[in-house]
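WARN retry 2 of 3 for item q-0093 after timeout on previous attempt; input resubmitted unchanged.
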Amino acid sequence: MDTSNSPRTTSETTPLVSAGTSKKPKTPLPKLQIGILMTLRLVEPIASMSIFPYINQLIRELGITGGDDAAVGYYAGIIESLFFVAQTLTVLRWSRLSDRIGRKPVLLVGLSGTCMSMLCFGLSTTFWGLVVSRCMCGVLNGNVSVLKTMLGELTDSTNMAQGFALLPIMWCIGGFIGPLIGGMLARPQDNWPGLFAHPFWSKYPYFLPCAVSACMFVLGFLVVLFFLEETLSTKRRSKLTTTTLSISNGANSDDRGGLSQTSNMPMRSLLTPTIVIPIANYAMLALLDIALMAILPLFLSTPTYLGGLGFTPSRIGLWMGIYAMANGIFQALFFAKIVDWIGPKRFFCGAVSCFAPIMLMFPIMSWLVHARGMVDHAITLTLISQLALTMIWDMAYGTVFMFITASAPTKNVLGTVNGLAQTSASMARVVGPAFATSLFAFSKEHNILNGNAVYVVFIVLAGVLRWLGSQLPDKIQDRDE
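OK item q-0093 returned
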């Protein structure tokens, strides 16, 4: 990008030599190590989202609602949110532990814990059994934060965009496969009575999708144990097989004592604007995104006389599945190229600016349905445009991960920084769905701003996020030089 004509302000943080004058060649990504991390990233959403197709039916069959179908959503929401509550309370501790004992041990514990929790979930016959197993999954799993930390250690400033572009792609693919597994394999005694005639399957009709998800974690455990290399500089073996590790971490054995002390630095010393601003952007991004994901299916399923589109569950699933696959392909093809072209800060600010028009399209579709009396081509085109903007919005995740990684003062506290970020995002994801759906219902019930108050509130919050984005550094700090 040509910046020769733009004004340049000089400060203590301004590089003496412009980065544009000598562009470094891209370091090749370590394919095997990155591939292992992406496999782990893939199985996480498969396991977490495989329960969504059958959780409502499971709660009905447990009889905890007393036959009141209206209360099913309340209990389902509790089950779905418990993971994020437990993760909020523990992910920072796992991240700090990974800065001391290494990344691999924490990953192995997380994979084992998630595997056991999925099996327990499938064998649960009471509501409290579901609660305990879901909390166990969150408490024993700090892998999301550790994965981002390892990816930051495996990449440098030249290939960071290419590496972090893979995270949302894997999430999209997992988010597509997970519900398919849950929907197809739930109650196998009904679908394949010849194969699953044993009374076990009648007693535990939702064990099969949980067992399949658990097997994926067993496979991930073995791959990590035998093939994944440690990336924490103080815990690596002296002989490295990955060139990128030696380039991007470059820690001499004489420095390891100092690095170990750095990894134990007080938490308060990390709460600097350099670190807090990217984390604040991530938390607000997570809040708005989870709110959007809660409002969208609610809007699609709401009857047309209340301002929704009145879609059936199968039609909603088809739209969301198509969106997930298109989103993954779009990010794979364009994310790294756009970041290299316009820079991470401009791209992030542009991506988050899409949230306001995304929200505006909800009342536009409501007006069109009211005016036309049916969901026609104009409304379908508006929905497609909304989902296209949502794909651009989702690309902000990969960019903010880059800023969080670059904000760490040393790579030996990168786990702690990512833990702080994941804790903030998990807190946002705990309150986001309930806040969004309650505000949606309140707006419709009391007809505030013609039922559109919920969209106005989130447009204002999107403006706050756009301002936070403007506070990010103009360039990703190059810690490799």
